């Protein structure tokens, strides 16, 4: 009998130590909400000692303005029969001894202890997590506002800005046609500069409009045969490829989940980028491949062009960022920014590896399907 009592005492001591050293606050109340037990974690969370709080109603730990909600929450579980499952789970506000309020996650269980029905609450201070969630929500709301503002700007760019630009461009071209050779050489040169600048501005506005509408005007994402998209794209490039004597090859391509139009634009921009930045006195060679990863396809577009220094790897994906002047390479500096925006809309990522003078490889990922590799 003494041995049995010894085991019981040891077991009770072990359970007390377990309760006192739990990372979660443990609060036990009777049927009326009077606190019967309050472990060390609960003391740290609420700022009360067990001696101060035991015998008080649990409402002392809840701000006055939310006590009614808490009472309803507890009443719901008082009406239930005790169970062995985890019990109720929810989030409420807590009130510390110093009067500060904070976010609490609570798991409530109903049990019989010594023949009396009790409420056992496991309490976690989730204020830091809630603050992080609120910060993310605020950033998402700010991003939504930014996208809405960008969409409004796109409307202005497509109407209010393009109309006067078209008028100016049309009249300058008329002047160039009608008075070419009738003015001095400087005048002809200056008119040509104006025509070139207006055409560049027109292209810039169109590219900016396309960039701004990637998210808001994107099509449905569906299974797409990348091989078919690539073959159609290379057919469109055939004349330029012939003129440049470029060599473009690709491996068998998969089927992915994508917006067909945006996937085509993505590949078009990456291939066009490789063709534009070809190395002098070297036959352009471009190869497109795809590798299956556990949860996606990783594509690569490899070229033997001029390459890019590592310090510019992030910069080239930013809008309006150019590494070369217009006199060396045409363009608006938006193409790769469009690629990044398209890939991110599809839940993927894009990056590159490059060696100056040897070439670059652009990688991007796309969501996989269960379909087989296409035959293209």
How would you explain this protein's 3D organization?
Helix content is 45%, strand content 22%. With 376 residues, it is an alpha+beta fold. It has 3 domains: 2-125, Beta-Lactamase; 127-217, Orthogonal Bundle (Helix Hairpins), CATH 1.10.287; 220-376, 2-Layer Sandwich (Heat Shock Protein 90). The strands form 2 sheets. Strands 6, 7, 8, 9, 10, 11 and 12 form a 7-stranded mixed β-sheet that branches. α9 (260-276) runs antiparallel to α10. The N and C termini lie far apart (83 Å). Residues 82-86 have low confidence and may be disordered.
| Total domain modules | 3
**Share of residues in helices:** 40-55%
Average pLDDT over all residues: 81
CATH architecture classification name of the largest domain = 2-Layer Sandwich
Rg for CA atoms: 34 Å
Largest sheet: 7 strands, mixed
Q: Unreliable stretches, pLDDT < 50, 5 or more residues?
A: 82-86
Structural class by SSE content: alpha+beta
CATH class of the largest domain: Alpha Beta
Shape: elongated
Number of strands: 12
Instruction: Name the CATH homologous superfamily of the largest domain.
Output: Histidine kinase-like ATPase, C-terminal domain
Order of helices and strands: HEEHHHEEEHHEHHEEHEEHEE
Beta fraction of the residues? 15-25%
Can you tag this structure with a few keywords?
seven-stranded mixed sheet; alpha+beta; Beta-Lactamase; Helix Hairpins; 376 residues; five-stranded antiparallel sheet; 45% helix; Heat Shock Protein 90; 10 helices; elongated
């Amino acid at each position: 009998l003494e041995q049995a009592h010894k085991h019981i005492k040891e077991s009770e001591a072990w359970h007390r130590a377990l309760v006192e050293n739990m990372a979660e606050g443990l609060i036990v109340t009777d049927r009326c909400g009077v606190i019967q037990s309050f472990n060390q974690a609960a003391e740290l969370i609420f700022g009360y000692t067990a001696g101060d709080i035991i015998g008080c109603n649990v409402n002392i730990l809840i701000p006055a303005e939310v006590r009614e909600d808490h009472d309803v929450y507890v009443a719901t579980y008082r009406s239930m029969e005790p169970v062995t499952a985890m019990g109720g789970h929810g989030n409420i506000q807590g009130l510390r001894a110093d009067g500060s309020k904070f976010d609490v996650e609570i798991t409530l269980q109903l049990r019989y202890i010594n023949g009396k029905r009790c409420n056992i609450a496991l309490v976690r201070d989730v204020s830091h997590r809630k603050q992080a969630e609120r910060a993310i929500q605020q950033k998402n709301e700010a991003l939504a506002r930014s996208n809405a503002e960008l969409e409004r700007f796109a409307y202005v760019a497509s109407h209010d800005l393009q109309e006067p630009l078209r008028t100016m461009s049309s009249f300058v071209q008329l002047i160039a046609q009608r008075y070419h050779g009738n003015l001095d050489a400087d005048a002809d040169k200056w008119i040509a500069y104006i025509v070139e600048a207006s055409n560049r501005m027109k292209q810039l506005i169109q590219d900016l409009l396309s960039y701004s509408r990637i998210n808001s005007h994107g099509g449905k994402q569906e299974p797409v045969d990348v091989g078919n998209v690539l073959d159609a794209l290379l057919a469109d490039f055939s004349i330029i490829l012939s003129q440049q004597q470029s060599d473009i090859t690709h491996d068998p391509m998969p089927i992915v989940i994508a917006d067909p139009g945006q996937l085509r634009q993505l590949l078009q921009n990456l291939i066009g980028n490789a063709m534009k930045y070809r190395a002098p006195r070297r036959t352009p060679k471009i190869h497109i491949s795809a590798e299956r990863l556990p949860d996606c396809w990783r594509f690569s577009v490899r070229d033997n062009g001029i390459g890019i220094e590592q310090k510019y790897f992030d910069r080239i994906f930013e809008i309006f960022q150019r590494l070369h002047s217009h006199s060396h390479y045409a363009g608006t500096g938006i193409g790769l920014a469009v690629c990044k925006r398209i890939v991110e809309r599809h839940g993927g990522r894009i990056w590159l590896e490059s060696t100056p003078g040897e070439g670059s490889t652009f990688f991007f990922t796309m969501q996989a399907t269960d379909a087989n590799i296409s035959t293209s």
